[in-house]
Amino acid sequence: MLNQIFKFAGKVGVDDWVVKLFFLFVATDMTFIIIHVIYAHTDLIPYNAFSLATDRGYSELFQYIKEYWSALFSGLLALQFRSPLYLSWSLLLFYLLLDDSLQIHEKLGGFISNQLSFSSMFNLRAKDFGELTVSIVVFLLFLCAIYISYSWSDHLSRQRSKHLIRLLFILAFFGVVVNMLHIAFKTSHLLDTLFTVIEDGGEMLIMSLITCYILSWFVRLKKIVT
Length: 226
Fold this sequence. Notes:
Elements: H1 2-11, H2 16-41, H3 58-81, H4 84-102, H5 104-115, H6 126-150, H7 155-184, H8 189-225
Helix pairs in contact: 2-8, 3-4, 3-8, 4-6, 5-6, 6-7, 7-8
């Protein structure tokens, strides 16, 4: 199985060590998920920093690192090749880092819901609709920037951006859609744990894939240049 994965990685231009790094990331993500379940349903772990749902907890700090690396490497590619497409991805990933660490969409969502007098419905608070509005608007703005810069880019950059856009939509599914379902259907402790694992665990795993994929771009294109 592993040999097949490495062969496939070679065909799509990903080095073996990047695949190994991805497995290491996934192993770390899964460890955080398992620890969260133990924390949520036993008294073995008394510190909430081990919870996936804790702001600036250990798992979220690991997520910050991945987002930082993704933004950094895509930014370096933008400088190296003077590429507006890589720059668009770097800015998007840097926004994700700021949003997670500074809770931008939560704060703006609360402000917008108050200003526009959103109402609660479907077990969702007015603030939740404000957060959803912010997420959708920011997501569309970055997609527009990527679309515009896409037309000025080379074939390889376009191809890899297509893959990354798919991963971005999957990330948005966990971060937005599952998050809304989590809030609406959090009717028991067991369901809360399940939704937390799907939402936060899904985001972590997809971000691991995004980070390693962008790192593979950087390594491969630097080899071409040198």
